Write a sequence for this structure.
């Protein structure tokens, strides 16, 4: 039986989901907007300082990996760890990261 995605290492996930590149697709902006709305509704607008479309799909005309990268900035004093359940409630997996990445 395969491991659940949440228990896999990055290396195992990369083997399952290799990076591919695609020509720019204007629909990526619409998909970002849909996902940003879902995220804001799940975590609560009072916690959101800004949501941005970042990465290669945000640049028109750029060859990109067809994954919509979204940056969520929260207001000060937000309990970020408590937001995990909100993300999971709308179908996002949570991948813990170190507090002080190098």
């Amino acid at each position: 039986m395969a491991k659940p995605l949440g228990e896999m290492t990055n290396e195992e996930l990369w083997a399952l989901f290799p990076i591919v590149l695609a020509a720019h697709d204007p629909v990526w902006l619409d998909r970002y907007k849909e996902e940003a709305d879902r995220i804001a509704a799940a975590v609560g607008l009072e916690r959101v300082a800004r949501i941005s479309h970042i990465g290669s799909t945000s640049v028109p005309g750029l060859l990109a990996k067809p994954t919509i990268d979204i940056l969520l900035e929260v207001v000060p004093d937000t309990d970020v760890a408590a937001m995990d359940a909100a993300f999971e409630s709308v179908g996002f997996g949570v991948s813990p990261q170190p507090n002080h990445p190098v």
Notes: The first helix runs from residue 10 to 16. Residues 6 and 93 are 7 Å apart (CA to CA). The chain has a mean pLDDT of 89. The beta strands are 48-54, 69-74.
